[in-house]
Amino acid sequence: xxxxxxxxxxxxxxxxxxxxxxxxxxxxxxxxxxxxxxxxxxx
Length: 43
What we know:
By secondary structure, this protein is mostly helical. The protein has helices at about 5-10, 15-40.
């Protein structure tokens, strides 16, 4: 029986890449939230 690693069958991004993308999206959302809060506080 031929053994294969999971990654050889499906071309998926690495876990580090996925985590990095999630972190970037989260930071972008946080900046938008902070901007909205600052606008509400000033306005």
